[in-house]
Design goal:
This protein is of the alpha+beta class. It is about 20% helix and about 45% strand. It has 2 helices and 8 strands, in the order βαββαβββββ. A hairpin with a 4-residue loop joins strand 2 and strand 3 (about 40-50). The longest helix has 13 residues, at about 10-20. It is elongated and about 60 Å long. The two termini are about 20 Å apart.
Length: about 110
């Protein structure tokens, strides 16, 4: 058995959670904030049988999307004493980060 810890963007949570639950996966959802843009994320905790890990990863991969965002850079000086300007910089955010850990023992009370 494995523990899957998945960090996804809030925007993908509903669709992904619906798909996981419809396939019989049990999920604990935790809200979090982080990443480059400090946006709302969701951490999903799942205990998954070894034979079902790839199925679970396929669902996550299908429903956790990367997105391009534009971020304003800080103004900078071109020559000392002359104010510069800021330019929008494109960054890719989202998708999923999944950590897979072995479960030594699971006890359910």
């Amino acid at each position: 058995m494995k523990l899957l810890i998945s960090i996804i963007q809030q925007e993908d949570m509903r669709e992904l959670l619906d798909q996981l639950l419809s396939k019989g996966f049990k999920v604990t959802k935790l809200k979090s904030i982080g990443g480059f843009l400090e946006v709302s994320n969701v951490v999903l905790l799942m205990a998954v049988e070894d034979g079902k890990v790839n199925e679970c990863l396929d669902i996550i991969k299908e429903h956790a999307h990367s997105r391009d965002r534009y971020v304003e850079t800080l103004p900078f000086n071109l020559i000392e004493g002359i104010s510069g300007f800021s330019l929008p910089v494109k960054v890719t955010v989202g998708g999923a980060q999944v950590f897979i850990l072995d479960i030594e023992k699971m006890i359910k009370f």
